[in-house]
Structures are given as C-alpha cells and as structure tokens.
Amino acid sequence: MTVIRMGVPGLSSEEKVRLSDRLADVASDMTGRSRDDLMVYVYDHSSEQPRH
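Request: output the structure for the sequence above.
Response:
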C-alpha cells in the first residue's frame, strides 16, 4: 500500500472531499489503475482522523 499524507490546515470538509477526488484522479492517471482500485485519504492534522 502506498500512503500519501499531506497537511493543509484550515480546509473545509468540502475542500477535503475535492482534494481527495483530485488526488485519486492523479493517482489513477499515473498508475493506470481504476479509481475503484485506489483509496485516497486526506487527514486532518489536528485530529489524525481520515477523511474520505
């Protein structure tokens, strides 16, 4: 499993969803895998709880 973790303080829930979607698009393009084969999480740095 490959994990990408990034901290961007102050993002709203909607912004985190958009970021997760965009990262999944890029990962899909780069690996040639379907988005269904990928899991992308954006973590809230202060709570460390995955947002997806």
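The longest strand covers residues 42-43.
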